[in-house]
Amino acid sequence: LNRGFTEMHCMSGHSNFVSCVCIIPPSDLYPRGLIATGGNDHNICIFTVDNSAPLYVLKGHKNTVCSLSSGKFGTLLSGSWDTTAKVWLNDRCMMTLQGHTAAIWAVKILPEQGLMLTGSADKTIKLWKAGRCERTFTGHEDCVRGLAILSEMEFLSCANDASVRRWQISGECLQVYYGHTNYIYSISVFPRCKDFVTTGEDRSLRIWKHGECAQTIRLPAQSVWCCCVLDNGDIVVGASDGIIRVFTESLERTASAEEIQAFENELSQASIDPKTGDLGDINADDLPGREHLKDPGIRDGQTRLIKDNGKVEAYQWSVSEGRWMKIGDVVGSSGATQQTSGKVLFEGKEYDYVFTIDVNESGPSYKLPYNITDDPWLTAYNFLQKNDLNPMFLDQVAKFIMDNTKGQTLLCTSSQFSDPFTGAGRYVPGSSSGLSAIPATDPFTGAGRYVPGSASNAVAPVDGGDPFTGMGAYQSAAAKVENIYFPKKDAVTFDQANPTQILGKLKELNGTAAEEHKLTEDDLIILEKLLSATCNTSAETPTAQQLQTLWRAVNWPEDIVFPALDILRLSVRHPTVNENFCSEKEHVQFIILLKFLNPKGKQANQLLALRALCNCFVTHAGQKLMMEQRDEILTQAIETKSGNNKNIHIALATLTLNYAVCLHKVNNIEGKAQCLSVISTIMEVVQDLEAIFRLLVAVGTLISDDTNAVQLAKSLGVDSQIKKYASVSEPAKVKECCRFVLNLL
User: Fold this and answer.
1) How far apart (Å, rounded) are the C-alpha atoms in residues 180 and 347?
2) Model-level pTM?
3) Do residues 110 and 235 share a domain?
4) Can you give the residue range of the structural domain that contains 651?
5) What is the pLDDT of residues 326-351, one digit of tens each?
6) Which of 188, 402, 439, 632 is the least crowded, having the fewest Cβ atoms under 10 Å away?
């Protein structure tokens, strides 16, 4: 009877070592699922179960791909030594997650859509939502090596600091588990419960139940690289000796007596290097002989060292069998101490020494960590307090520390600068917790006053119902509602204008401008002509002189520039101005416009800059510039969401909608991924229903006629984000448009 596994296929597709493997669950297209592998050749190979050559190869990382995780709807998340993670859908890269400063060793897609985790050698874990970093988890003191999901709200991480941490998605660390004595490489959770297993550089597999290390299984290999729990609860481990071993609690799956004996023999012949600190501090001269094994152990996995014929041997207590099992010979331990082996890990921290103290023969032994920078008396006092021991031992323990460290002490140095007068950290300007400024209200108020973005002068459209103005959108319930909303074919622009008010404001502020910014009477007349030329009140074409004057005004200081920005917003719709603005070689004016998106700047400027960008989409030259600069524009524009200004939100939603219109035409899936991610992020803060409506039309336009984009929107959780708008009563267009989008999802 063969109880083991047999090799079915040998797949090859990488030009160098394979560093991670992951299963992509079955789908309609591949009912048996797929296998993804990441390699040192920077590639990811995707295999079908029955072919030894790759179905396709994903290229894009610039260094070893060392971790993979698969999610719903065909998404795959990869982490690399190049410090980035990438999200793939089928055979395309959808987005790149940037933010870590060192290799990403671990990645996991969470059950809640759109949420992803990355763990890095920079000691942090990051939570990403729709491709943006939402939160950074700090606490580990060394490289994060593994991640495991417990539930929608909780996950585990393991690290080179020899600790496991349990976290809440909200950012809180709930528990730290210590037990390993060296790096922990891998962690895996048992199905349907919170128990888990870990493996690491201390030759062990550890099984954790109810927050405690319930069992330690030693292996005849120094590095136990990876572990996974199968659906039946069996544990599989891969180690540095090139062997995969499966452990089980099930009697019918247990290996034969010969195989178990062979495993024990292999284990007992292993040589353990005392320098690794796996077994604590060892001094061969002080070790007891074989008689020490007559006494039973007190807990499973307890280790004991004995000296037999000048050889040091390590044994481990097995509760189930009631005996000491040999786990290896300790080599080169002729009085080797921590001084020859560098630092020792204890509870995840590095120490110069970790002593094992037996207070009395029958009782348990205690670990006493010590650094030569510590005070021996204080360390001894803390050790007795922590372990509830008799303070009478103080002299003995302190003397023991001093004898065994041969009086090595160092001057204590603090790594943090502190203020010599107060002893506290230095005052850092800008870090004060003072009150933040009250948000600026609209700069001008009063009847007939010019207020940027006021829609009081919007022109009512002709009947026929334009969904963007909300006019005429009401339909009787009996009529069959048809989708008039998307895919949208043309850009949406901001056209409302009151040239008289804008010029009045410009003149008023020109009076307060510094001499070097002041415009002459002639300049003002020139701008008036430009306005009438671009607002269709005259048939003239804007001239180069008019544009020169406009650029001078747009370079005004930020507290008075907004009327000039409003003239730019209206003028840029004119083909001549648009061509001039968008085809400029150096993009100087465009860069100036972008800087007004700064969320710390004035809201009036943010609003008008967003509207001007929306209006750039009216010509081919404008669309070309907007698409070329998409990364830069969207990254900056999204920051304006924080001001909670409804007009800004509407302009921001319109910008994404105009991008959706362009992306729908060229069918650029990477661009769609970026746009969906931005929409998903804005949806979280926007309250205004007009802005929501425009975002819904943008989503509908992006996913129309594109199954990849539909899968992507689902994997980002867009459907769950928009559901609530299907029941909005007024305006009806929000509900209708939302239902059309949900039908596609």
Assistant:
1) 8
2) 0.70
3) yes
4) 499-684
5) 887 776 433 333 333 356 767 666 67
6) 439
- In this predicted structure, what is the pLDDT of residue 243? 93
Taking each helix axis as running N to C, give the angle between helix 562-571 and helix 499-512, from 0 to 180 degrees, rounded to the nearest 10: 140
Least confident of 2-6, 360-364, 400-404: 360-364
Q: Which pLDDT value is given to residue 359?
A: 66
What's the CA gap between 370 and 343, in Å, rounded? 11
Task: Say how far apart CA 202 and CA 598 lie, in whole Å.
Answer: 51
Same domain, 505 and 394: no
Q: Residue 386 sits in a domain of what CATH number?
A: 3.10.20.870
Does the residue 329 lie in any domain? no
Contact 473, 733 (CB under 8 A): yes
Phi, psi of 244 (to 5 degrees): -100, 130
362, amino acid identity: S
DSSP of 637-695, one letter per residue?
A: HGGGGGG--HHHHHHHHHHHHHHHHHHHHHT-HHHHHHHHHHHHHHHTT---HHHHHHH
Tens-digit pLDDT profile for residues 232-263:
999 999 999 999 999 999 998 999 999 999 99
User: Would you say residue 414 lies in a domain?
Assistant: no
Query: How far is the CA of 424 from the CAs of 230, 419, 432, in angstroms?
Result: 52, 5, 15
Same domain, 398 and 534: no
Query: How far is 450 from 297, CA to CA, in rounded Å?
Result: 86
Residues 695, 737: contact at Cβ < 8 Å?
no
For 345, counting Cβ atoms within 10 Å of its Cβ (0-12 exposed, 13-18 middle, 19+ buried), the class is buried
**Cα–Cα distance for residue pair 47/38, rounded to 1 Å:** 12
Same domain, 92 and 206: yes
Q: CATH number for the domain including 676?
A: 1.25.10.10
For the record, the structure tokens of 572 come out as 């840029």
C-alpha distance from residue 499 to each of 217, 508, 647 (Å): 81, 14, 20
Residue ending a domain, among 248, 272, 307, is: 248
Question: Which residue type, as a one-letter code, is found at position 105?
Answer: W
What is the distance between the alpha carbons of residues 288 and 298, in angstroms, rounded to a whole number? 18
The CATH number linked to 65 is: 2.130.10.10
Question: What is the rounded CA–CA span in Å between residue 58 and residue 87?
Answer: 11
Instruction: Report CA dihedral (499, 503, 506, 510) to the nearest 10 degrees.
Output: 170
Q: What is the pLDDT of residues 134-151, one digit of tens each?
A: 999 999 999 999 999 999
Question: Chain-wide mean pLDDT for the chain?
Answer: 84
Whether residues 236 and 363 fall in one domain? no
In a domain, 7, yes or no: no
Angle at 413 between CA 412 and CA 418, to 5 degrees: 130
Long-range (24+ apart) CB contacts under 8 A made by 178-182 are 178/347, 178/348, 179/206, 179/208, 179/213, 179/216, 180/204, 180/206, 181/276, 181/277, 181/278, 181/280, 181/344, 181/345, 181/346, 182/276, 182/277, 182/278, 182/345
Domain endpoint, select from 215, 248, 281: 248
Same structural domain, 526 and 381: no
Would you state the torsion angle of the CA atoms of residues 440, 445, 451, 455, taken in this order, to the nearest 10 degrees? 110
Predicted local confidence at residue 276, as pLDDT = 62
Same domain, 543 and 397: no
Q: Could you tell me the two tokens for 216?
A: 């330690």
Type of residue found at 588:
V
DSSP string, 245-291: EEE-S-TTTSPPHHHHHHHHHHHHT-EE-GGG-TT----GGG---GG
pLDDT at residue 421 tops 80: no
Flag whether pLDDT at 716 surpasses 80: yes
Provide the domain count of the chain: 3
Residues 509 and 392 in one domain: no
Structure tokens at 306: 């004995």
In a domain, 198, yes or no: yes
Q: Which residue has the higher pLDDT, 53 or 369?
A: 53
pLDDT digit string, tens, across residues 159-207: 999 999 999 999 999 999 999 988 999 999 999 889 999 999 999 999 9
